[in-house]
Amino acid sequence: MEPKKPFLMRVRYFMAWLLAGPQSERMKKAKSRIGLAMLSFGGLYLIIAGSMISYALNRDSSQRSAIRSQEAVSSARPDIVDRNGEVLATDVRTVSLFAEPRKLAASFDVDEATELLTAVLPDLDQREVRDRLRSGKGFVWLRREITLEQRGQIHRLGIPGIGFLNEAKRSYPNGPTLSHVLGHVNVDNQGIAGMERYIDGRGLAELHRAGFATSRNQEPVQLSIDLRVQHVLRDELIKAHQRFRAKAASGVIIDVNTGEIVAMASIPDYDPNHPGGSMGDDRINRLTTGVFEMGSVMKALTIAMAVDSGRFNVNSSIDSRFPLVVGRHQVKDFHAQRRVLTLAEVFTYSSNIGTSRMAMTLGGEHQRTFLRRLGQMSRLQTELPESAAPLLPRRWADITIATVSFGHGISVAPLQAVMGTAALMNGGLLIQPTFLRRTPEQVAAASTRVIRPETSNVMRFLMRLNAERGSGRRADVDGYYVGGKTGTAEKVIGGRYAKDRLLNSFMAVFPADQPRYLVLVTLDEPKGIPETHGLATAGFNAAPTAARVITRAAPLLGLQPRFDLPPAAQSIQVGYRGPAAR
Protein backbone atom coordinates (compact mmCIF):
# COMPACT_ATOMS: atom_id res chain seq x y z
CA MET A 1 0.00 0.00 0.00
CA GLU A 2 1.43 3.37 -1.11
CA PRO A 3 1.94 5.79 1.80
CA LYS A 4 -0.13 9.00 1.80
CA LYS A 5 1.68 12.10 0.61
CA PRO A 6 2.27 14.76 3.23
CA PHE A 7 -0.29 17.62 3.33
CA LEU A 8 2.21 20.28 2.29
CA MET A 9 3.31 18.18 -0.69
CA ARG A 10 -0.29 17.86 -1.84
CA VAL A 11 -0.74 21.63 -1.55
CA ARG A 12 2.44 22.12 -3.60
CA TYR A 13 1.20 19.75 -6.34
CA PHE A 14 -2.17 21.57 -6.38
CA MET A 15 -0.52 24.98 -6.77
CA ALA A 16 1.74 23.62 -9.54
CA TRP A 17 -1.30 22.28 -11.32
CA LEU A 18 -3.12 25.57 -10.81
CA LEU A 19 -0.28 27.70 -12.17
CA ALA A 20 0.93 25.37 -14.93
CA GLY A 21 -0.39 22.19 -16.49
CA PRO A 22 -1.87 21.29 -19.85
CA GLN A 23 -3.12 24.03 -22.16
CA SER A 24 -6.58 22.51 -22.27
CA GLU A 25 -7.25 23.29 -18.65
CA ARG A 26 -6.18 26.99 -18.80
CA MET A 27 -9.71 28.44 -18.47
CA LYS A 28 -10.53 26.09 -15.65
CA LYS A 29 -7.35 27.07 -13.85
CA ALA A 30 -8.04 30.82 -14.29
CA LYS A 31 -11.41 30.44 -12.64
CA SER A 32 -9.82 28.53 -9.80
CA ARG A 33 -7.17 31.22 -9.28
CA ILE A 34 -9.85 33.93 -9.12
CA GLY A 35 -11.82 31.91 -6.59
CA LEU A 36 -8.72 31.38 -4.48
CA ALA A 37 -7.98 35.12 -4.48
CA MET A 38 -11.55 35.90 -3.45
CA LEU A 39 -11.37 33.31 -0.71
CA SER A 40 -8.11 34.79 0.58
CA PHE A 41 -9.37 38.35 0.66
CA GLY A 42 -12.62 37.22 2.26
CA GLY A 43 -10.71 35.45 4.97
CA LEU A 44 -8.59 38.54 5.54
CA TYR A 45 -11.66 40.75 5.94
CA LEU A 46 -13.22 38.22 8.29
CA ILE A 47 -10.12 38.36 10.45
CA ILE A 48 -10.24 42.18 10.52
CA ALA A 49 -13.98 42.21 11.32
CA GLY A 50 -13.47 39.64 14.05
CA SER A 51 -10.71 41.74 15.59
CA MET A 52 -12.94 44.83 15.58
CA ILE A 53 -15.82 42.93 17.16
CA SER A 54 -13.51 41.49 19.76
CA TYR A 55 -12.17 44.97 20.55
CA ALA A 56 -15.65 46.38 20.88
CA LEU A 57 -16.81 43.54 23.10
CA ASN A 58 -13.77 43.79 25.30
CA ARG A 59 -13.76 47.57 25.76
CA ASP A 60 -14.02 48.68 29.32
CA SER A 61 -17.68 48.22 30.25
CA SER A 62 -17.72 51.23 32.57
CA GLN A 63 -16.53 53.46 29.71
CA ARG A 64 -19.20 52.19 27.33
CA SER A 65 -21.98 52.44 29.88
CA ALA A 66 -20.88 55.89 31.04
CA ILE A 67 -20.69 57.30 27.52
CA ARG A 68 -23.95 55.67 26.47
CA SER A 69 -25.64 56.93 29.65
CA GLN A 70 -24.41 60.47 29.20
CA GLU A 71 -25.42 60.56 25.55
CA ALA A 72 -28.88 59.45 26.64
CA VAL A 73 -29.51 61.69 29.63
CA SER A 74 -27.91 64.70 27.99
CA SER A 75 -30.12 64.43 24.95
CA ALA A 76 -32.80 66.90 24.04
CA ARG A 77 -35.67 67.89 26.31
CA PRO A 78 -38.86 69.36 24.89
CA ASP A 79 -39.19 73.13 24.92
CA ILE A 80 -41.51 74.63 27.52
CA VAL A 81 -43.67 77.49 26.23
CA ASP A 82 -46.29 79.76 27.77
CA ARG A 83 -49.94 79.88 26.71
CA ASN A 84 -49.04 82.25 23.85
CA GLY A 85 -46.12 80.18 22.56
CA GLU A 86 -43.32 82.21 24.16
CA VAL A 87 -40.30 80.03 24.93
CA LEU A 88 -39.71 79.59 28.67
CA ALA A 89 -37.13 76.78 28.59
CA THR A 90 -35.11 75.29 25.74
CA ASP A 91 -31.98 73.25 25.03
CA VAL A 92 -28.68 74.59 23.75
CA ARG A 93 -25.73 72.46 22.68
CA THR A 94 -22.61 72.39 24.81
CA VAL A 95 -19.35 70.41 25.00
CA SER A 96 -18.01 68.40 27.95
CA LEU A 97 -14.47 67.13 28.57
CA PHE A 98 -13.67 63.52 29.53
CA ALA A 99 -10.61 61.29 29.82
CA GLU A 100 -9.76 57.61 29.31
CA PRO A 101 -7.13 57.10 32.04
CA ARG A 102 -6.04 53.64 30.85
CA LYS A 103 -5.34 54.87 27.36
CA LEU A 104 -3.63 58.05 28.58
CA ALA A 105 -1.37 56.35 31.14
CA ALA A 106 -0.05 53.96 28.51
CA SER A 107 1.32 56.71 26.25
CA PHE A 108 1.55 60.02 28.12
CA ASP A 109 2.84 61.40 31.39
CA VAL A 110 -0.05 62.04 33.80
CA ASP A 111 1.66 64.95 35.55
CA GLU A 112 2.33 66.68 32.25
CA ALA A 113 -1.25 66.10 31.10
CA THR A 114 -2.53 67.57 34.38
CA GLU A 115 -0.41 70.72 33.98
CA LEU A 116 -1.49 71.21 30.36
CA LEU A 117 -5.19 70.78 31.15
CA THR A 118 -5.20 73.05 34.19
CA ALA A 119 -3.38 75.72 32.17
CA VAL A 120 -6.39 75.86 29.85
CA LEU A 121 -8.91 75.37 32.68
CA PRO A 122 -7.26 77.07 35.66
CA ASP A 123 -10.24 76.57 37.95
CA LEU A 124 -9.78 72.80 37.82
CA ASP A 125 -8.32 71.30 40.98
CA GLN A 126 -4.92 69.86 40.02
CA ARG A 127 -4.96 67.15 42.67
CA GLU A 128 -8.44 66.01 41.68
CA VAL A 129 -7.53 65.94 37.97
CA ARG A 130 -4.33 64.01 38.67
CA ASP A 131 -6.20 61.48 40.82
CA ARG A 132 -8.77 60.93 38.12
CA LEU A 133 -6.16 60.49 35.40
CA ARG A 134 -4.34 57.94 37.57
CA SER A 135 -7.50 56.08 38.53
CA GLY A 136 -7.01 53.39 35.89
CA LYS A 137 -10.67 53.66 34.89
CA GLY A 138 -11.92 53.51 31.37
CA PHE A 139 -13.86 56.78 31.57
CA VAL A 140 -13.91 59.82 33.86
CA TRP A 141 -15.41 63.27 33.56
CA LEU A 142 -13.00 66.20 33.83
CA ARG A 143 -15.33 69.15 33.20
CA ARG A 144 -18.94 69.48 32.11
CA GLU A 145 -19.81 72.39 29.83
CA ILE A 146 -16.67 73.93 28.42
CA THR A 147 -16.55 76.67 25.77
CA LEU A 148 -15.72 76.06 22.12
CA GLU A 149 -12.55 78.10 22.59
CA GLN A 150 -11.47 75.86 25.47
CA ARG A 151 -12.24 72.80 23.38
CA GLY A 152 -10.00 74.08 20.59
CA GLN A 153 -7.15 74.82 22.98
CA ILE A 154 -7.34 71.37 24.59
CA HIS A 155 -7.62 69.67 21.20
CA ARG A 156 -4.41 71.35 20.06
CA LEU A 157 -2.57 69.92 23.08
CA GLY A 158 -2.76 66.49 21.44
CA ILE A 159 -3.08 64.54 24.69
CA PRO A 160 -4.10 60.94 23.96
CA GLY A 161 -7.11 59.66 25.90
CA ILE A 162 -8.68 63.11 26.21
CA GLY A 163 -12.01 63.56 24.41
CA PHE A 164 -15.16 65.61 24.11
CA LEU A 165 -18.87 64.79 24.21
CA ASN A 166 -21.64 66.97 22.79
CA GLU A 167 -24.37 67.46 25.37
CA ALA A 168 -27.61 69.39 25.80
CA LYS A 169 -27.73 72.19 28.35
CA ARG A 170 -31.01 73.70 29.54
CA SER A 171 -31.43 77.43 29.06
CA TYR A 172 -34.07 79.68 30.64
CA PRO A 173 -34.29 82.89 28.57
CA ASN A 174 -36.29 84.75 31.22
CA GLY A 175 -33.93 84.03 34.09
CA PRO A 176 -35.63 84.02 37.50
CA THR A 177 -39.04 85.17 36.21
CA LEU A 178 -40.58 81.68 36.41
CA SER A 179 -38.08 79.84 38.58
CA HIS A 180 -40.58 78.27 40.99
CA VAL A 181 -42.87 77.14 38.18
CA LEU A 182 -40.26 75.78 35.77
CA GLY A 183 -37.87 74.41 38.37
CA HIS A 184 -34.51 73.34 36.94
CA VAL A 185 -32.38 70.42 35.73
CA ASN A 186 -29.15 68.86 36.96
CA VAL A 187 -25.86 68.64 35.10
CA ASP A 188 -27.17 65.61 33.17
CA ASN A 189 -30.16 67.66 31.91
CA GLN A 190 -32.57 65.68 34.09
CA GLY A 191 -35.46 67.56 35.70
CA ILE A 192 -35.15 67.74 39.47
CA ALA A 193 -37.70 70.43 40.38
CA GLY A 194 -40.84 72.15 39.14
CA MET A 195 -42.32 71.45 35.73
CA GLU A 196 -38.97 70.10 34.56
CA ARG A 197 -39.30 67.24 37.03
CA TYR A 198 -42.94 66.76 36.06
CA ILE A 199 -41.89 66.33 32.42
CA ASP A 200 -39.40 63.60 33.39
CA GLY A 201 -42.06 61.93 35.49
CA ARG A 202 -44.30 61.72 32.44
CA GLY A 203 -41.90 59.37 30.64
CA LEU A 204 -38.96 61.47 29.46
CA ALA A 205 -36.65 59.98 32.08
CA GLU A 206 -37.38 56.47 30.77
CA LEU A 207 -36.64 57.61 27.22
CA HIS A 208 -33.39 59.13 28.45
CA ARG A 209 -32.31 55.90 30.08
CA ALA A 210 -33.18 53.94 26.96
CA GLY A 211 -31.28 56.41 24.79
CA PHE A 212 -34.31 57.32 22.65
CA ALA A 213 -34.88 60.95 23.74
CA THR A 214 -32.38 62.31 21.24
CA SER A 215 -34.68 63.99 18.74
CA ARG A 216 -35.14 67.72 18.70
CA ASN A 217 -38.57 67.16 17.15
CA GLN A 218 -40.35 66.72 20.47
CA GLU A 219 -43.62 68.55 20.96
CA PRO A 220 -43.29 71.61 23.23
CA VAL A 221 -44.98 71.47 26.62
CA GLN A 222 -47.44 74.37 26.74
CA LEU A 223 -48.19 75.86 30.14
CA SER A 224 -51.20 77.87 31.26
CA ILE A 225 -48.80 80.66 32.31
CA ASP A 226 -48.99 84.01 30.52
CA LEU A 227 -45.43 85.36 30.48
CA ARG A 228 -46.61 88.98 30.26
CA VAL A 229 -48.83 88.64 33.33
CA GLN A 230 -46.07 86.76 35.11
CA HIS A 231 -43.73 89.71 34.61
CA VAL A 232 -46.36 92.04 36.09
CA LEU A 233 -47.04 89.88 39.15
CA ARG A 234 -43.37 89.31 39.92
CA ASP A 235 -42.49 92.97 39.44
CA GLU A 236 -45.19 94.16 41.84
CA LEU A 237 -44.27 91.54 44.42
CA ILE A 238 -40.62 92.62 44.31
CA LYS A 239 -41.66 96.25 44.78
CA ALA A 240 -43.92 95.38 47.72
CA HIS A 241 -41.23 93.17 49.23
CA GLN A 242 -38.82 96.09 49.19
CA ARG A 243 -41.28 98.85 50.07
CA PHE A 244 -42.69 97.13 53.15
CA ARG A 245 -39.36 95.52 54.09
CA ALA A 246 -41.04 92.11 54.18
CA LYS A 247 -39.30 88.83 54.80
CA ALA A 248 -40.91 87.35 51.70
CA ALA A 249 -43.73 87.89 49.20
CA SER A 250 -45.74 85.61 46.98
CA GLY A 251 -48.69 85.72 44.65
CA VAL A 252 -50.77 83.78 42.17
CA ILE A 253 -53.39 84.54 39.52
CA ILE A 254 -55.80 81.74 38.59
CA ASP A 255 -58.66 81.45 36.11
CA VAL A 256 -61.59 80.55 38.39
CA ASN A 257 -63.51 78.88 35.57
CA THR A 258 -60.76 76.52 34.36
CA GLY A 259 -58.33 76.19 37.26
CA GLU A 260 -55.50 77.32 34.98
CA ILE A 261 -52.74 79.19 36.78
CA VAL A 262 -51.90 82.27 34.73
CA ALA A 263 -49.05 83.56 36.92
CA MET A 264 -47.28 82.52 40.10
CA ALA A 265 -44.24 83.97 41.86
CA SER A 266 -42.51 83.60 45.20
CA ILE A 267 -39.94 86.17 46.32
CA PRO A 268 -37.03 85.66 46.98
CA ASP A 269 -36.56 83.49 43.90
CA TYR A 270 -33.52 82.28 41.97
CA ASP A 271 -32.16 81.94 38.43
CA PRO A 272 -32.69 78.37 37.13
CA ASN A 273 -29.72 78.92 34.81
CA HIS A 274 -27.69 78.81 38.05
CA PRO A 275 -29.72 76.42 40.22
CA GLY A 276 -27.28 76.56 43.10
CA GLY A 277 -29.14 79.71 44.12
CA SER A 278 -32.24 77.65 44.91
CA MET A 279 -30.75 76.42 48.18
CA GLY A 280 -32.05 77.88 51.42
CA ASP A 281 -35.39 77.99 53.21
CA ASP A 282 -36.10 81.50 51.94
CA ARG A 283 -36.04 80.25 48.31
CA ILE A 284 -38.89 77.76 48.60
CA ASN A 285 -42.06 78.10 46.59
CA ARG A 286 -44.21 79.50 49.39
CA LEU A 287 -47.45 78.88 47.48
CA THR A 288 -47.16 75.09 47.30
CA THR A 289 -44.26 74.00 49.52
CA GLY A 290 -45.02 76.21 52.51
CA VAL A 291 -48.08 75.88 54.74
CA PHE A 292 -49.38 78.83 56.73
CA GLU A 293 -52.26 79.96 58.89
CA MET A 294 -54.02 82.12 56.33
CA GLY A 295 -56.03 84.19 58.80
CA SER A 296 -59.18 86.02 57.83
CA VAL A 297 -59.17 85.05 54.15
CA MET A 298 -60.44 81.71 55.48
CA LYS A 299 -63.53 83.47 56.84
CA ALA A 300 -64.88 83.35 53.31
CA LEU A 301 -64.97 79.56 53.55
CA THR A 302 -66.66 79.64 56.96
CA ILE A 303 -69.36 82.07 55.85
CA ALA A 304 -69.91 80.08 52.65
CA MET A 305 -70.37 76.99 54.85
CA ALA A 306 -72.93 78.85 56.95
CA VAL A 307 -74.91 80.12 53.95
CA ASP A 308 -74.75 76.79 52.10
CA SER A 309 -76.14 75.00 55.17
CA GLY A 310 -79.40 76.92 54.73
CA ARG A 311 -79.37 78.09 58.37
CA PHE A 312 -77.98 81.54 57.57
CA ASN A 313 -78.51 84.12 54.86
CA VAL A 314 -76.98 87.46 54.00
CA ASN A 315 -79.29 89.28 56.44
CA SER A 316 -79.03 86.84 59.38
CA SER A 317 -78.24 88.47 62.73
CA ILE A 318 -75.22 87.34 64.74
CA ASP A 319 -74.61 88.59 68.27
CA SER A 320 -71.16 90.21 68.34
CA ARG A 321 -71.68 92.52 71.33
CA PHE A 322 -69.26 90.73 73.64
CA PRO A 323 -66.22 88.50 73.29
CA LEU A 324 -67.11 84.86 72.78
CA VAL A 325 -66.07 82.76 75.78
CA VAL A 326 -64.99 79.20 74.89
CA GLY A 327 -63.79 77.33 77.95
CA ARG A 328 -60.83 79.28 79.32
CA HIS A 329 -60.42 81.23 76.09
CA GLN A 330 -61.98 84.39 74.71
CA VAL A 331 -62.51 85.21 71.03
CA LYS A 332 -62.27 88.96 70.39
CA ASP A 333 -62.60 91.27 67.40
CA PHE A 334 -59.77 93.45 66.13
CA HIS A 335 -62.27 96.18 65.21
CA ALA A 336 -65.00 95.42 67.73
CA GLN A 337 -68.44 96.86 66.82
CA ARG A 338 -70.02 95.70 70.11
CA ARG A 339 -73.44 95.13 68.60
CA VAL A 340 -75.51 92.60 66.72
CA LEU A 341 -74.17 92.28 63.15
CA THR A 342 -75.72 90.94 59.99
CA LEU A 343 -73.87 88.17 58.21
CA ALA A 344 -72.78 90.74 55.59
CA GLU A 345 -71.36 92.94 58.33
CA VAL A 346 -69.55 90.02 59.92
CA PHE A 347 -67.73 89.70 56.61
CA THR A 348 -67.01 93.38 55.99
CA TYR A 349 -65.93 94.03 59.60
CA SER A 350 -64.04 90.71 59.59
CA SER A 351 -65.60 89.73 62.92
CA ASN A 352 -63.94 86.81 64.65
CA ILE A 353 -66.83 86.65 67.11
CA GLY A 354 -69.50 86.46 64.43
CA THR A 355 -67.60 83.92 62.33
CA SER A 356 -66.95 81.72 65.35
CA ARG A 357 -70.61 81.79 66.43
CA MET A 358 -71.74 80.58 63.01
CA ALA A 359 -69.15 77.77 62.94
CA MET A 360 -70.05 76.61 66.47
CA THR A 361 -73.73 76.63 65.59
CA LEU A 362 -73.03 74.14 62.80
CA GLY A 363 -70.54 72.06 64.82
CA GLY A 364 -67.12 70.55 64.33
CA GLU A 365 -68.19 67.61 62.17
CA HIS A 366 -69.96 69.93 59.72
CA GLN A 367 -66.89 72.17 59.64
CA ARG A 368 -64.48 69.30 58.95
CA THR A 369 -66.71 67.87 56.25
CA PHE A 370 -67.01 71.23 54.52
CA LEU A 371 -63.29 71.95 54.65
CA ARG A 372 -62.56 68.46 53.34
CA ARG A 373 -65.02 69.02 50.50
CA LEU A 374 -63.19 72.22 49.55
CA GLY A 375 -59.82 70.47 49.49
CA GLN A 376 -58.38 72.01 52.66
CA MET A 377 -57.78 68.81 54.61
CA SER A 378 -55.44 66.92 52.27
CA ARG A 379 -52.26 67.57 50.31
CA LEU A 380 -52.74 69.78 47.26
CA GLN A 381 -52.07 67.93 44.00
CA THR A 382 -50.74 69.83 40.96
CA GLU A 383 -48.12 69.10 38.33
CA LEU A 384 -45.47 70.57 40.61
CA PRO A 385 -43.89 67.77 42.68
CA GLU A 386 -43.15 70.19 45.52
CA SER A 387 -46.20 70.27 47.78
CA ALA A 388 -46.78 70.15 51.51
CA ALA A 389 -49.59 68.53 53.46
CA PRO A 390 -51.75 70.83 55.62
CA LEU A 391 -51.18 70.95 59.36
CA LEU A 392 -54.43 70.01 61.05
CA PRO A 393 -55.52 70.14 64.69
CA ARG A 394 -54.97 66.90 66.60
CA ARG A 395 -58.35 67.21 68.29
CA TRP A 396 -61.33 69.24 67.17
CA ALA A 397 -62.48 70.83 70.43
CA ASP A 398 -64.86 73.80 70.69
CA ILE A 399 -62.00 76.27 70.70
CA THR A 400 -60.67 74.56 67.57
CA ILE A 401 -63.98 75.12 65.81
CA ALA A 402 -63.82 78.79 66.75
CA THR A 403 -60.20 79.46 65.75
CA VAL A 404 -60.31 77.44 62.53
CA SER A 405 -63.35 79.47 61.47
CA PHE A 406 -61.18 82.59 61.17
CA GLY A 407 -58.04 80.89 59.84
CA HIS A 408 -56.07 80.06 62.98
CA GLY A 409 -55.21 76.55 64.14
CA ILE A 410 -55.06 75.14 60.60
CA SER A 411 -52.19 75.67 58.14
CA VAL A 412 -52.59 75.13 54.41
CA ALA A 413 -50.62 75.86 51.27
CA PRO A 414 -51.71 79.30 49.96
CA LEU A 415 -52.57 77.78 46.57
CA GLN A 416 -54.87 75.42 48.46
CA ALA A 417 -56.77 78.39 49.91
CA VAL A 418 -56.94 79.88 46.42
CA MET A 419 -58.49 76.67 45.07
CA GLY A 420 -61.16 76.69 47.78
CA THR A 421 -61.96 80.39 47.34
CA ALA A 422 -62.16 80.02 43.54
CA ALA A 423 -64.98 77.49 44.06
CA LEU A 424 -66.89 80.15 46.01
CA MET A 425 -66.57 82.53 43.07
CA ASN A 426 -67.22 80.38 39.98
CA GLY A 427 -70.68 79.09 40.83
CA GLY A 428 -69.67 76.39 43.29
CA LEU A 429 -67.25 74.10 41.40
CA LEU A 430 -64.01 72.93 42.98
CA ILE A 431 -61.46 72.73 40.15
CA GLN A 432 -58.02 71.28 40.70
CA PRO A 433 -55.40 73.94 39.86
CA THR A 434 -53.17 73.24 36.88
CA PHE A 435 -50.09 74.71 35.20
CA LEU A 436 -51.13 73.25 31.83
CA ARG A 437 -53.70 74.42 29.27
CA ARG A 438 -57.07 72.71 29.61
CA THR A 439 -59.78 71.90 27.10
CA PRO A 440 -63.45 72.33 28.12
CA GLU A 441 -63.70 68.55 28.45
CA GLN A 442 -60.70 68.48 30.78
CA VAL A 443 -62.22 71.29 32.86
CA ALA A 444 -65.45 69.33 33.25
CA ALA A 445 -63.50 66.21 34.29
CA ALA A 446 -61.53 68.19 36.91
CA SER A 447 -64.61 69.89 38.41
CA THR A 448 -66.68 68.85 41.43
CA ARG A 449 -69.69 70.73 42.78
CA VAL A 450 -69.10 71.70 46.41
CA ILE A 451 -71.66 74.48 47.10
CA ARG A 452 -74.92 75.67 45.58
CA PRO A 453 -74.80 78.37 42.86
CA GLU A 454 -76.90 80.58 45.15
CA THR A 455 -74.21 80.38 47.83
CA SER A 456 -71.59 81.39 45.28
CA ASN A 457 -73.74 84.39 44.37
CA VAL A 458 -73.82 85.49 48.02
CA MET A 459 -70.06 85.14 48.35
CA ARG A 460 -69.38 87.22 45.24
CA PHE A 461 -71.67 89.89 46.62
CA LEU A 462 -69.84 89.88 49.97
CA MET A 463 -66.43 90.10 48.29
CA ARG A 464 -67.53 93.09 46.23
CA LEU A 465 -69.24 94.71 49.24
CA ASN A 466 -65.98 94.42 51.17
CA ALA A 467 -64.14 96.30 48.42
CA GLU A 468 -66.77 99.01 48.46
CA ARG A 469 -67.02 99.64 52.20
CA GLY A 470 -64.82 97.16 54.11
CA SER A 471 -61.13 96.29 54.53
CA GLY A 472 -60.70 95.75 50.78
CA ARG A 473 -61.26 99.36 49.75
CA ARG A 474 -57.59 99.89 48.87
CA ALA A 475 -57.79 96.99 46.41
CA ASP A 476 -60.58 98.46 44.32
CA VAL A 477 -59.62 99.27 40.72
CA ASP A 478 -61.92 101.52 38.74
CA GLY A 479 -63.48 99.66 35.82
CA TYR A 480 -62.76 96.08 36.97
CA TYR A 481 -65.30 95.62 39.78
CA VAL A 482 -62.88 94.03 42.21
CA GLY A 483 -64.01 92.08 45.26
CA GLY A 484 -61.78 90.79 47.99
CA LYS A 485 -60.95 89.75 51.52
CA THR A 486 -58.01 90.68 53.73
CA GLY A 487 -56.20 88.33 56.04
CA THR A 488 -53.81 89.42 58.82
CA ALA A 489 -52.56 86.39 60.70
CA GLU A 490 -50.21 86.49 63.67
CA LYS A 491 -47.42 83.97 63.17
CA VAL A 492 -46.70 81.28 65.75
CA ILE A 493 -43.22 81.82 67.18
CA GLY A 494 -42.03 79.42 69.88
CA GLY A 495 -45.54 78.04 70.34
CA ARG A 496 -47.14 81.46 70.91
CA TYR A 497 -48.73 84.00 68.60
CA ALA A 498 -46.47 86.99 68.00
CA LYS A 499 -48.42 90.23 67.53
CA ASP A 500 -45.59 91.91 65.65
CA ARG A 501 -44.88 89.01 63.25
CA LEU A 502 -47.66 89.00 60.66
CA LEU A 503 -48.48 87.01 57.55
CA ASN A 504 -50.70 89.30 55.47
CA SER A 505 -52.89 88.19 52.58
CA PHE A 506 -55.37 89.65 50.19
CA MET A 507 -57.64 87.48 48.05
CA ALA A 508 -59.16 89.43 45.15
CA VAL A 509 -61.67 88.41 42.49
CA PHE A 510 -62.34 90.40 39.31
CA PRO A 511 -64.84 91.18 37.97
CA ALA A 512 -66.95 90.22 40.98
CA ASP A 513 -70.22 90.16 39.01
CA GLN A 514 -68.79 87.96 36.24
CA PRO A 515 -65.81 86.23 37.88
CA ARG A 516 -62.82 85.44 35.67
CA TYR A 517 -59.69 85.65 37.80
CA LEU A 518 -58.67 85.30 41.42
CA VAL A 519 -55.52 86.98 42.75
CA LEU A 520 -53.76 86.15 45.99
CA VAL A 521 -51.00 88.39 47.35
CA THR A 522 -49.16 87.49 50.57
CA LEU A 523 -46.51 89.45 52.46
CA ASP A 524 -44.53 87.77 55.22
CA GLU A 525 -43.70 90.05 58.17
CA PRO A 526 -44.19 93.42 56.41
CA LYS A 527 -43.29 96.56 58.32
CA GLY A 528 -45.34 99.69 58.82
CA ILE A 529 -44.18 102.71 56.80
CA PRO A 530 -45.01 106.45 57.00
CA GLU A 531 -47.55 106.15 54.17
CA THR A 532 -49.50 103.56 56.20
CA HIS A 533 -49.14 105.58 59.44
CA GLY A 534 -46.96 102.81 60.80
CA LEU A 535 -49.71 100.19 60.37
CA ALA A 536 -48.73 96.81 58.92
CA THR A 537 -52.10 95.05 58.47
CA ALA A 538 -53.11 93.54 55.13
CA GLY A 539 -55.49 96.34 54.15
CA PHE A 540 -52.49 98.72 54.00
CA ASN A 541 -50.00 96.57 52.09
CA ALA A 542 -51.33 93.34 50.55
CA ALA A 543 -54.57 94.96 49.31
CA PRO A 544 -52.96 97.88 47.43
CA THR A 545 -50.36 95.50 45.99
CA ALA A 546 -53.18 93.36 44.59
CA ALA A 547 -54.74 96.52 43.12
CA ARG A 548 -51.53 97.38 41.28
CA VAL A 549 -51.31 93.82 39.93
CA ILE A 550 -54.91 93.97 38.66
CA THR A 551 -54.44 97.42 37.12
CA ARG A 552 -51.56 96.17 34.99
CA ALA A 553 -52.66 92.57 34.38
CA ALA A 554 -56.36 92.98 33.52
CA PRO A 555 -55.76 94.59 30.08
CA LEU A 556 -53.20 91.88 29.24
CA LEU A 557 -55.84 89.27 30.10
CA GLY A 558 -58.23 90.84 27.59
CA LEU A 559 -60.63 92.36 30.12
CA GLN A 560 -62.23 95.61 29.01
CA PRO A 561 -62.88 98.14 31.80
CA ARG A 562 -66.52 98.93 32.57
CA PHE A 563 -67.10 102.24 34.28
CA ASP A 564 -70.04 103.57 36.31
CA LEU A 565 -71.09 100.11 37.48
CA PRO A 566 -73.76 100.06 40.23
CA PRO A 567 -72.97 99.00 43.81
CA ALA A 568 -72.95 95.33 44.69
CA ALA A 569 -76.42 95.49 46.25
CA GLN A 570 -77.83 96.45 42.83
CA SER A 571 -75.65 94.44 40.44
CA ILE A 572 -75.48 91.15 42.42
CA GLN A 573 -78.96 90.29 43.61
CA VAL A 574 -78.97 88.37 46.90
CA GLY A 575 -81.90 89.95 48.77
CA TYR A 576 -79.62 92.20 50.80
CA ARG A 577 -81.57 94.85 52.72
CA GLY A 578 -78.59 96.94 53.79
CA PRO A 579 -77.82 98.63 57.12
CA ALA A 580 -80.54 101.25 56.70
CA ALA A 581 -83.28 98.61 56.43
CA ARG A 582 -82.57 96.97 59.82
Structure, explained:
This protein is α+β, with helices and mostly antiparallel strands and 582 residues long. The protein contains 20 helices and 16 strands. The strands form five sheets. Strands 1, 2, 3, 4 and 5 form a five-stranded mixed sheet that branches. It has a five-stranded antiparallel sheet with strand order 7-6-16-15-14, sandwiched between helices. Strands 8-11 form a two-stranded antiparallel sheet. α5 packs across α6 and α11 (299-308) crosses α13. It is elongated. The N and C termini lie far apart (141 Å). Mean pLDDT is 87; it is low at 59-73.
How are the secondary structure elements laid out?
Layout (H helix, E strand, L loop, with lengths): L6 H13 L6 H33 L2 H13 L6 E2 L5 E13 L1 H5 L4 H11 L5 H8 L6 E7 L1 H10 L4 E10 L7 H4 L11 H17 L10 E2 L4 H17 L4 E8 L5 E7 L31 H10 L8 E3 L4 E3 L2 E3 L8 E3 H6 L3 H11 L1 H10 L24 H8 L8 H12 L3 E3 L8 H6 L1 E3 L3 H17 L13 E11 L2 E15 L6 E8 L17 H15 L11 H4 L11
